[in-house]
């Protein structure tokens, strides 16, 4: 007997627009939060206990919000909109105040990537005014760190991930480009360490597992492409996963490194075992393209959730494979 298809544990409605981005903040066990950014310029802060929006932030002059995150160790929220701004918000003590902003000049859909270097000191990578360039600044000072522009003709930057390796090198950044290439950048040296052609179409999304030095990317076609960094920081293409339907909006690896989730243009969320890319579940609930997936950062593994945000203006929350499941 096959097990019954999973259903959401609950859904969140009232976002007032297509859901482009999701971000959990569940370190405070008393008030776990989910942030969502919509196509109508609204950021909702959802209280996962009451399952209602505890705050709605109106930003970016009504332009679509494509990325939200929180600065660790503060109450600050950071958001990126199609108005070419990255905004910093103070939400402490009931406020919804924009305290700073950075003009990107970017007209694309590439999401920012942020890295905490030390408490209160972050690096922010964002797409620049030239379609192929990535700019990195320090926050909160907004001091420019570098601009990364590839020598090769790879087209517009589509997605990126910034991290600090354990090797002692400076920060590294992997970016996916319009021609299907991945470039690995050494931020300190402002140089490309390696390059790989992962897809025949633009790289729509990627994510990276710092513990395994392994990443995965998706595009508008049917394949997910996984890759690793070897000891010399060379990108090595590995396994491909062929999907039933084309188009992936986002990929997310759970914090324990056991699960991978994909947001599909076919309205479905797919869950894989991250170790062997074994298909585990197809989550069917949404009636339009799924544009974002995120795993919660609950301290207690039994409380972990998977959230999916869709063009149908709904967020579904799922509790799956939380205790001891074989997810090879």
Automatic annotation (TrEMBL):
WD repeats lie at residues 283-320. PROSITE patterns: WD_REPEATS_2 (PS50082), WD_REPEATS_REGION (PS50294). Keywords: Repeat, WD repeat. The keyword Ribosomal protein does not apply. The keyword Coiled coil does not apply. Transmembrane segments: none annotated. Pfam families: WD40. InterPro entries: WD40/YVTN_repeat-like_dom_sf, WD40_repeat_dom_sf, WD40_rpt. It comes from the Eukaryota. This is Guanine nucleotide-binding protein subunit beta-like protein 1. It comes from Xyrichtys novacula (Pearly razorfish).
